[in-house]
Amino acid sequence: MPDRIDPLRDIDPFQERVARIALGVARDDGFVLGGGLALVAHGVLVRPTEDIDLFRDSGDGDGSGPAAAGGGLSLAAARIGTALTAAGIRAEVQPVEGWLAELVAGLDDQLVELVAYRDGTPAQVRLTLGRLHRRHGPVVLDIGPVMHLDDLRAWKVAALVSRAEPRDYIDVAAFLGSMDPPALIGLARTMDPAIGDDEVAAVGARLDRMPDREFTGYGLDAAAVAVLRRRFAAWPGR
Fold first, then answer.
1. What does the pLDDT look like over 160-196, one tens digit per residue?
2. Are 76 and 67 a contacting pair, CB within 8 Å?
């Protein structure tokens, strides 16, 4: 069996459609695709993604696009909502909660979240607009502008340290196929210098306590989970 951890599912077509519409509107305001869907766009892995994350560089101010006239992220979200409605997709702004609200300091116009609903069902896709520091310019891929892979690696490792959810382990394990832990941790500290050695070491302990079934919802079978755990064997503190 190949030494791979890629879950065997495709991206949901509705989620991809929402992402394309949103990027088509927001790219002029400096937004790029981040999060798990960006990793899929880069071809790093394929796994079910739970949301769509669009980020403007935290150093961009309010950008130079249509949203720069006032309102910042809120105005950009309103424009995306209008575009989704025009495409026949119901969308509404939601209050931001969870780990991302904690990770990004200063929530006043730092995060805005929309929810796009499938036709005639309560099923939904969350679309978050936020600000994150980027050290590199975006890469333009088929879906639109996407965060540079090194910036994705940095923020994904920071997310792993702070929240340690199964999808974070899946994403970082994909990076560990080509980079060693010190290099990845170094990237994360360029974005968050406050990451401590004890927090890094806790990543391995959390994985040890996490049962294999936590990963099955992301399409990993027993062999793939074994590969994931093997890739974290050299993580600091193991």
1. 999 999 999 999 999 999 999 999 999 999 999 999 9
2. yes
